[in-house]
Amino acid sequence: MWWHNLNALIDGTFHDPVSICIENGIIQEVREGPAQGPGIDLQGLTAIPGLVDVHGDMFEREIHPRPKANIPPEVALYEVDKRLANSGVTTAFAARQHTVISKCTDAFRVCLSRRTAGHGPGNLHEL
Fold this sequence. Notes:
This protein is an alpha/beta fold. The protein has helices at 59-63, 73-86, 101-116; strands at residues 2-10, 13-23, 26-32, 39-41, 46-47, 51-56, 89-94, 123-126. The protein folds into two domains: 2-47; 51-126, Translation Initiation Factor IF3. 20% of the residues are buried.
């Protein structure tokens, strides 16, 4: 499927308009100007490369959103992963508090195994 008529940041330069061919969730081709074929007109939108969060404190709030509320780490990390992907963050480096290290490490392994199996939206890295 083609995405037509959008702006794109490519190698540090904005291009307008471009057409992007997506197949099975992967960019196959990028063309300056219009492309032939069925697609979606995305005029006014801009495509950018995935963002990298180099120091995130996102896990603690998900695991303990308020006093005495404890969310299972596997659920919390999976929700963080989805939120990051929906925000354009494709890679995140998560800093963790020492009080939740063992919970995060075990849940992190579960999330990584889901992603490796093709079920997760992004790439999380543990510092």
